[in-house]
Design a protein that fits this description.
With 441 residues, the chain is an alpha/beta fold. It has helices spanning 6-19, 25-43, 66-71, 83-96, 125-139, 142-148, 167-170, 188-197, 207-218, 240-248, 357-366, 392-410, and strands spanning 106-111, 119-124, 156-162, 177-183, 202-206, 228-232, 252-258, 261-266, 272-274, 280-285, 292-298, 310-311, 314-318, 330-337, 342-345, 352-355, 373-379, 382-388, 416-421, 434-436. The chain folds into 3 domains: 6-139 and 260-335, Rossmann fold (3-Layer(aba) Sandwich); 152-225 and 232-249; 341-436, GMP Synthetase, Chain A, domain 3 (2-Layer Sandwich), CATH 3.30.300. Helices cover 32% and strands 25% of the residues. It starts with 5 loop residues before the first helix and ends in a 5-residue tail after the last strand. Bound molecules: zinc ion.
Amino acid sequence: MTSRFEPLTVLRHFAAARAMRHRDRAALGAWQRRRLERFLAHVLPRAPYYAPWAGKPLEAIPVAGKALMMREFAGFNTRGIGREQAMEIALRAERSRDFRPAIGDLTVGLSSGTSGNRGLFLVSSAERLRWAGIVLARALPRHLFARVVSPWREPLRIAFFLRANSNLYTTLASSRVAIGYFDLLEPVEAHVARLMDRPPDVLVAPAGILRLLALAALGGRLRIAPQHVISIAEVLEADDVPLIARAFGQPVHQLYQCTEGFLGYTCALGGFHLNETYVHVEPEWLDAERTRFVPLVTDFTRETQLIVRYRLNDILRVAEPCACGNPERTIAAVEGRTDDVLWLADTSGTRMTAVFPDLVRRSMLFAGDSVRDYRVRQHGDELQIALESESVESSGALVAGELARLWDELRVRPPRVRFTGMPPSVAGAKRRRVEYAGGAR
Ligand SMILES: [Zn+2]
């Protein structure tokens, strides 16, 4: 049920988020400390699992992850909701496609999770409205924001491509924002027809879908002129960025949003900022040079299902501070999942070396334009590489040359490499270009 006050609440959070600017890193740190203190003192003890850590500093609290949160589901929320109860409601919502709040003011959602362990999440109405306000404030450029608050102008039209709808996302809709939801399970031709029918001002989709739409636009089959393009949910591949930008005449923005929270966004200058005004991010460094880290997230803005020192399954690559003056940490990219890292023995054969997915992607780019798309999968000591190309043989030779250079640079033993053509794609499946299938470690 939508109360008539909901849009006002969203607007209030929106305005607060817009007004929130920290002078420098120190000011942001002070703000975070105040918020964290309040969270640790008043919210944390309300979740049974965390009660023993009431009054303790953040560093003393154990690191959590999806498996632990699912196992201790009732202990991780402040409303005493059990896992069975939540799961039953989530499954019912999936089947009926009715995603309205199901337990009082709480929405239960189900995240897909590629490795079979599905995540359950709980969000209250208040959190939902705050989230909507903050996302709109961070994701919309100034001129589109002006349109939202000008009642005499047409509502803003957003095309939103999602795997499963949720009450969370429908919160964004109002009389000023019209959102069209596109189901990723539908074929691209259906999307093209619908987009042409009602051309969106803002296009929000996983990178792989943006790529397909861009190809349709460049091929003359899709004629739309969105004023803002946002990539979500998948790694935005370096070679897709210019393609999408050329197709729509707009730079590609990013939203780093997952069930664990709203974690990042790109600013007007294109800097990819972490959402540190609302979440605390501790880097768990992956290399001695501190170029890549896994984030431990503490969301001091949430009060229902607690996200405390929660280890995400993502690798982030650091970037220089952004020239826009916003001191929120910037990252170069979300490189992929921690389990997409390939492992190869070093030349002495004594230890395993991590080969970050981004390094493999770079080599594939260097191999040139004849490789239109690819998948790299490690299986034990073999790399299976599928190529979309005129000739798998000649492109394969170029790729093999680039990879040889990479192995040399990393001082690892060259794995066996097997080239094939690209298998047909599955609608709705998450695109993972580089993947570790196990067996090497
Ligand atoms: Zn910036």
